[in-house]
Amino acid sequence: MTTSTSNLNPLDLFDVRSELSEEERMVQDSVARFVDEKAIPVMREAFEQHRFPDELISGVAELGLLGCSIDGYDCAGLNSICYGLICQELERGDSGLRSFVSVQSSLVMFPIHAYGSEEQKQRWLPAMAKGEVIGCFGLTETQGGSDPSNMKTHARRDGSDWIINGSKMWITNGSIADIAIVWAMTDDGLRGFILEKDMPGFTAKEIENKFSLRASITSALFFDNVRVPETNVLPGVSSLKGPLSCLTQARYGISWGVIGAAQACLDEVIRYTGDRVLFDRPLSHTQAIQIRLADMSRRITTAQLLSLQLGRLKDRGTLSSTQVSLAKWNNCRAALDIARDARDILGASGISAEYVPIRHMLNLESVITYEGTETVHQLVIGKELTGVNAFG
Fold first, then answer.
1. Residue 60 phi, psi dihedral angles, 5° rounding
2. Is residue 11 in some structural domain?
């Protein structure tokens, strides 16, 4: 038997870390410590109890992770690679924790910064960066998750105000949110509104009995003649470009985040198969297991390199939404397949919460669906390749 003397990191076989700047490595290391010391110890219990561990919010905020890509307004002003690494480490803990940060940063703070008035930015962004104000993003509706143009929520002018009626579904952070970015059809096109939780007619109901993302809050939002002042309308956009640009930001973070979940699963099975003795030898000494571990490593390495290049394109300002779709599709599929196979390798132990793959597997069943299903991203790429829109 030949024993390798390589010093390669089994979770980073192509040494992607060597391509990072000193600042990027420092950000990754600080978030990794937080996840190891604060998040992972509570995640299993939170998942089992169907509870978002809101005790982690202050630590996340103190590290500067909320709205970290925004310059000014008490935000960290980090580059896109740093944001990706943050998502990767958070999702290594749990997809629910990364989802919380993704929504706060990419789906609420980003549109306020990109499309809001200066008054709106000053009012909300510093407080959100500190975790003092929590936000959610209201786009998806029960009848049109993959078809936002089929939106039923609408807003009509009433003097200097707007009256909003409708509902939104599958909204992360909904019932703990202080504000909601709600997208509604108007006579002037699709508009974004900042709704505040105490506005009469605005209610949020938590969705129970989930078997995925149990350590995340998911809600339904209802709008019954909610009166919204003009000062709460995002003035900078009046088309689908608004919410779609937000989704591009979130999908970018997801493409990195799922790598962390996959790494957690691979790490678990490497240790397990090294310790588990079957037929007088450790499982890791068999060809079948080594082939499966190698395939996991191949998928993780491919995902890492895709996301690294994606981050470089984003920082250069040349990023295409099609490129984000390719990375979201590839990396989510890779992570889900790895989690499923890791669960299988663990045998009967694979269904136990004592081991992380079952939790990550269940979470990734949602992650591969939200922010654009696998099919949606395939069709986005198909349109890019052929010039033909095959949606619908």
1. -60, -45
2. no
pLDDT at 131 over 90: yes
| Domain assignment present for 225 | yes
User: For the segment 225-279, what is each residue's pLDDT rounded down to a tens digit?
Assistant: 999 999 999 999 888 899 999 999 999 999 999 999 999 999 999 999 999 988 8
Q: Check pLDDT > 60 for residue 349.
A: yes
The candidate with the shortest Cα–Cα distance to 59, out of 22, 86, 77, is 86
- Give the torsion through C-alpha atoms of 34, 36, 37, 39, to 10 deg: 70
Same domain, 65 and 190: no
Same domain for 255 and 377? yes
Same domain, 353 and 330: yes
Report which residue type is found at 23. Answer: E
For 290-315, the pLDDT digits (tens) are 999 999 999 999 999 999 999 999 99
Secondary structure of 41-98 as H, E, C letters: HHHHHHHHCCCCCHHHHHHHHHCCCCCCCCEECCEECCCHHHHHHHHHHHHHHCHHHH
- Dump the DSSP string for 220-273: EEEEEEEEEEGGGB-TT--STHHHHHHHHHHHHHHHHHHHHHHHHHHHHHHHHH
- What is the Cα–Cα distance from 303 to 330, expressed in whole angstroms? 7
CA distance 162 to 227: 6
pLDDT averaged over every residue in the chain: 95
DSSP letter at 286?
A: S
**For this structure, is 55 an active site residue?**
no
pLDDT for 26 equals 98
- Rounded Cα–Cα distance for residues 392 and 389 (Å): 9
Q: Which of 89, 91, 141, 371 is catalytic?
A: 371
pLDDT of 3 strictly over 60: no
Evaluate if pTM is beyond 0.90: yes
Q: What is the pLDDT of residue 149?
A: 72
Domain residues for 20?
16-129
Residue 158, Ramachandran bin (φ over 0: left; ψ between -120 and 50: alpha; else beta): beta
Give the span between the Cα atoms of 357 and 375, in whole angstroms: 24
Tokens found for residue 100:
């919380």
DSSP 12: B
Rounded-to-integer distance, Cα 82 and Cα 65, Å: 10
